[in-house]
């Protein structure tokens, strides 16, 4: 039985959230062990945000080139996937090799261990035949994996998840996509713009069902214009693969394609973490955390595993809170161990805490920030982009809020009209009439994700509507449409 090794902090899972926590704590001088079983950096750089946005950049270039006809002459477009695959392989992922990321972490002073970490009692984590005992605690940043629905036959077929869709070198002729959420729509539009015949099957009655119904309509219309077939309200019942093609039986119809992509959500795998040894229920879907990311005493969680929103910016936001909380704890430990403040133990927690006190870096007693998701922004990077923040109209009504709604189509704004082809989109505002502030907003359009930023500030800082109405909006920007939507705010 291995003798446990004492360290300050153990971080299990070095995705975006875990790597940020482990790297920043190590940089601050704590002894940190970071455990990762796959690639340091996690889903976002290798199979998520970054490569998918490279694909979208390429697909949007094709779409813009096709818009030359009628706007600026004629253009003939010949899509070629090879440069996209090359860019993902060489620029984004180093052919799915994390050497650079590992060096980035160890260069910040962290100790890296490759393997699967699991609890072996309070404060103790086993990875292979090593056991670490954490003085301050353990941070879980173990993320999620694709959740594959229990559809008859599916498990026995060579279906794709986002991993195969991102790694693809040669595009199929046709693709069935199970799931019309953000990831399903982004990838569907990319492949369609490169000439793949794409069919989306969504069980709910609309795509992008977590967002405003108007956003679902705009996104569905855009994808249909790119040739994507969309079927909503159809639940896949059976999947077969005959060696060449997939057949999905759904809602009394059969759909066939060369490839099948399953993007029906994601799930944390808590059962692998030995949580029973620290008294935590591992049967839940996600790990519930408080507003300082505590799962339990001396256990924190960050990122997708918390279920607070599967976004890189949430993982980073939560990571900043965990870092401040742990550094605060280290500072207190130093103060307790050395009330005179003269100790200068180099290395380990004491040395780290001395450095923290000297540098006055983020977090101090009572000032560790608390998580607040009221103004959580989210962007679906379809073309048009759908940016959203805070509550949808329906969510606000369900909470009994005295709701006002303001809506305007982008095409009726000066910039939308100038833009012409490709100007589909809108601004929708959801206000709390009693408080006189915005509590949610959606900006769909060619730059919907960028236009969103002003709306995020408005929701986050609860800027009074009267102030928003009296701001100066640059002419002729897309974001100037916000002014029109504000003018249209009313109770309906
Ligand atoms: C196709 C796609 C596109 C996306 N696009 C965007 C986007 O545009 N914007 C955005 O904000 N978000 C996007 N996301 C979501 C984003 O990728 C995630 O929110 C983010 O990666 C979450 O980071 P994380 O640190 O929580 O988890 P992950 O990135 O999932 O990392 C968790 C890590 O923990 C490791 N691990 C798990 N268990 C163990 C264990 N027991 N021991 C050791 N290691 C373990 C895993 O191997 C993994 O590397 C996208 C996701 C996908 C799939």
Automatic annotation (TrEMBL):
Gene3D superfamilies assigned: 3.30.390.30, FAD/NAD(P)-binding domain (3.50.50.60)
Binding residue positions for NAD(+): 179-186, 202, 265
SUPFAM superfamilies according to UniProt: FAD/NAD(P)-binding domain, FAD/NAD-linked reductases, dimerisation (C-terminal) domain
Cofactor note: Binds 1 FAD per subunit.
Source domain of life: Bacteria
Pyridine nucleotide-disulphide oxidoreductase dimerisation domain span: 377-485
Disulfide bonds: 44-49
InterPro entries, A to Z: FAD/NAD-bd_sf (IPR036188), FAD/NAD-binding_dom (IPR023753), FAD/NAD-linked_Rdtase_dimer_sf (IPR016156), Pyr_nuc-diS_OxRdtase (IPR001100), Pyr_nucl-diS_OxRdtase_dimer (IPR004099)
Residues holding FAD: 53, 117, 304
Cofactor: FAD
Domain FAD/NAD(P)-binding residue range list: 8-319
Keyword terms, alphabetized: FAD, Flavoprotein, NAD, Nucleotide-binding
Family: Belongs to the class-I pyridine nucleotide-disulfide oxidoreductase family.
The protein, known as: NAD(P)/FAD-dependent oxidoreductase
Taxonomic source organism: Micromonospora costi
Origin organism lineage: Bacteria, Bacillati, Actinomycetota, Actinomycetes, Micromonosporales
């Amino acid at each position: 039985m291995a003798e446990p090794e004492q360290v300050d902090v153990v971080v299990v899972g070095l995705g975006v959230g875990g790597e940020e926590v482990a790297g920043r704590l190590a940089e601050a001088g704590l002894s940190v062990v970071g455990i990762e079983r796959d690639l340091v950096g996690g889903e976002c750089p290798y199979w998520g945000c970054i490569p998918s946005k490279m694909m979208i950049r390429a697909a949007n270039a094709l779409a813009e080139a096709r818009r030359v006809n009628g706007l600026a002459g004629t253009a003939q477009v010949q899509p070629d996937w090879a440069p996209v695959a090359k860019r993902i392989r060489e620029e984004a992922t180093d052919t799915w090799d994390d050497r650079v990321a590992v060096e980035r972490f160890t260069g910040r002073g962290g100790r890296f261990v490759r393997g699967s970490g699991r609890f072996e009692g309070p404060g103790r984590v086993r990875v292979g035949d090593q056991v670490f005992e954490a003085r301050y605690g353990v941070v879980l940043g173990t993320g999620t994996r694709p959740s594959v629905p229990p559809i008859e036959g599916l498990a026995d077929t060579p279906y794709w998840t986002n991993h195969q869709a991102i790694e693809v070198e040669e595009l199929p002729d046709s693709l069935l996509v199970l799931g019309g959420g953000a990831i399903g729509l982004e990838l569907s539009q990319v492949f369609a713009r490169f000439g793949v015949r794409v069919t989306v099957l969504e069980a709910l009655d609309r795509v992008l069902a977590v967002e405003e119904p108007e956003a679902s309509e705009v996104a569905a219309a855009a994808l249909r214009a790119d040739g994507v077939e969309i079927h909503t309200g159809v639940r896949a019942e059976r999947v077969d693969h005959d060696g060449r093609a997939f057949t999905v039986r759904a809602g009394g119809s059969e759909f066939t394609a060369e490839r099948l992509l399953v993007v029906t959500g994601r799930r944390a795998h808590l059962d692998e973490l030995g949580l029973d040894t620290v008294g935590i229920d591992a049967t839940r879907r996600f790990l519930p955390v408080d507003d300082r990311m505590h799962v339990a005493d001396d256990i924190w969680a960050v990122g997708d595993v918390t279920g607070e929103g599967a976004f890189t910016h949430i993982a980073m936001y939560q990571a900043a809170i965990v870092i401040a909380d742990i550094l605060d704890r280290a500072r207190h430990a130093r103060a307790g161990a050395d009330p005179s403040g003269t100790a200068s133990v180099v290395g380990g927690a004491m040395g780290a805490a001395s450095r923290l006190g000297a540098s006055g870096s983020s977090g101090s007693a009572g000032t560790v920030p608390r998580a607040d998701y009221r103004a959580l922004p989210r962007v679906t990077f379809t073309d048009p982009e759908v940016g959203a923040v805070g509550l949808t109209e329906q969510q606000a009504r369900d909470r009994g809020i005295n709701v006002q709604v303001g809506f305007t189509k982008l095409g009726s704004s000066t910039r939308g009209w100038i833009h012409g082809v490709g100007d589909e989109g809108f601004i929708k505002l959801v206000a709390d009439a009693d408080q006189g502030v915005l509590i949610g907003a959606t900006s769909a359009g060619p730059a919907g994700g960028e236009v969103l930023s002003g709306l995020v500030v408005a929701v986050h800082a609860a800027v009074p509507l009267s102030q928003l109405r009296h701001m100066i909006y640059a002419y002729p920007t897309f974001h100037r449409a916000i002014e029109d939507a504000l003018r249209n705010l009313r109770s309906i």
